[in-house]
Amino acid sequence: MKWIALTITVLVAGALGGFAIYTFGWHNTSTGERATARADAADLAAFVGCGGCYVGDVSRLAPQIWRVRLEGWKGATYLPASTRCYDLHLDQFRLGTNPAGYVLVACA
Question: Helix or strand or coil: residue 8?
């Protein structure tokens, strides 16, 4: 009877430990989101006519929402600076005839 209780205790402790590692440590999707945000920002740069600019800083604001900085904007005489910032919503981002999921914001 002692062995059964000990076995159950070890199994429950192992399950709780595995759950804690999955929840608080190992299960981090922001790295994959960052790569997606950088790729979407490069597509956005081409879509909005960014002549020779590159994707600068990419920072996570919330799950699936990223602020991207496009730097080195050339030929934009209507802008006082050579930098533009956009907020991207990765779940809703699309380009083409009906673009959505991005908004121009002030760079901070």
Answer: helix
Is residue 90 within 8 A of residue 66, CB to CB? The reply is yes
Residues facing 103 on adjacent strands:
87
The burial of 70, by beta-carbon neighbours within 10 Å (0-12 exposed, 13-18 middle, 19 or more buried), is given as buried
Residue of higher predicted confidence among 29 and 55? 55
- Would you say residue 22 has pLDDT above 70? no
pTM: 0.63
> In b/e form, how buried is each residue of 32-65, taking b as 16+ CB within 10 angstroms?
ebeebbeebbbebbeebebeebebeebeeeeebb
pLDDT score, position 86: 92
